[in-house]
């Protein structure tokens, strides 16, 4: 049929014209910030970027299991995936303007004339309409939606990285609290042993009631440290359950000691490489691309729009003759609409420009923040390791002093005041050692987070939703 052939040709031509502009690419703007050539306290010649499963470098199977479950069941990650689905749907919605809208109609009617004669009528039509995207407004709105879809994927990666980091930090805090609880209970036993020794000296007249009361105070003080530590353990367990999307009662954590963990090997490379690894920087870049496309669309809205419509079908008084060539009908129309007075257009353009400017500064800040986070993580890892080494030496010395003092106490060769001071020094040193060790492992978590977590060889985020092909290129 001629009308159907003409309609198909017009649809194909319009579609080809609309989709031919999809190759438009956004040019990344100059950040206009000084990118450091290296790090203040770190060499960059032998970089060791984080692996995709960077948490496994701590050598804890339980931690790896918890992370895998958090990636699967965490509510914030699930919500971020929902936002990806919304963004993808918006891409399809915006892209629909680049292809024709086709509808079909079918009508039947029966009329009775004044003479009593009944006349039946049958009609079927195929309708097509298309806006010729001559100025690129529809293509720009599609590019904006595509950039927002990319942004949603990086946003999901930001959320996932934060969740995994929180799981590691809370798990390490739980290990530290369990270790501190074991130390506190040992300290109660040790201080009780000293109390028994002083009580024995009181019985033979080499000590007095004040000595016993002072040591009893230390025993009670050590016992008083246990409830808040137990509370801390429970709080960490409930926090971990929340991250895993579980009710607290359903979580069982074996735990262990911080000293059993491995020290990760990680070393950042060039600062310029960092920008491509940080999902928050990539998200800010995608947001900027989206608003750039919005500016293009807002400018194009000032220009005339061209609409093509076509209709073809058949109309007959009988079903048998409905689809014959004599009953065919068609129409082709073209219309042009030029905005003359629309006060919203300048406002929309200014709004789009303001959003672009806002996202440009957010992009720059994200880049600078990535450098700051990495510098802070480097020095924190280094100094926390140094502090742990010094605190370990102090704890070892306090332990030796305590062993010597306890032996002298049994022999009656030391005064009670010295023994009390030695005990307090050891107990404080042990607790401080656990805290400094916790700080070191959490510093490594901050390092991994500052470096953007893991990044696969394909350029895809580790564990996040896959990026559209256009986003990778």
Describe the structure.
The protein contains eleven helices and four strands; from the N terminus they run αααββαααααββααα. The protein is α+β, with helices and mostly antiparallel strands and 473 residues long. It has a single domain, classed as Outer membrane efflux proteins (OEP) (Up-down Bundle). The protein has a four-stranded antiparallel beta sheet with strand order 1-2-3-4. It is elongated and about 135 Å long. It is a lipid-anchor. This is Efflux transporter outer membrane subunit.
Short description:
This protein has helices spanning 2-19, 61-73, 75-95, 137-204, 209-224, 226-243, 271-274, 279-300, 344-411, 416-450, 469-472, and strands at residues 101-112, 118-132, 305-316, 328-337. The protein is α+β, with helices and mostly antiparallel strands and 473 residues long.
Strand coverage percent:
5-15%
Would you tell me which CATH topology applies?
Outer membrane efflux proteins (OEP)
**Inertia-based shape:** elongated
- Please compute the radius of gyration using only Cα atoms: 36 Å
Helix count equals 11
CATH architecture: Up-down Bundle
Q: Determine the N-to-C terminus distance.
A: 44 Å
Report the uncertain regions: 1-23, 467-473
- Overall mean pLDDT stands at 85
Largest sheet: 4 strands, antiparallel
Spell out the helices and strands N to C: HHHEEHHHHHEEHHH
Strands, total number: 4
GO molecular function, one term: efflux transmembrane transporter activity
Membrane topology: Lipid-anchor
Pfam families: OEP (PF02321)
Family: Belongs to the outer membrane factor (OMF) (TC 1.B.17) family.
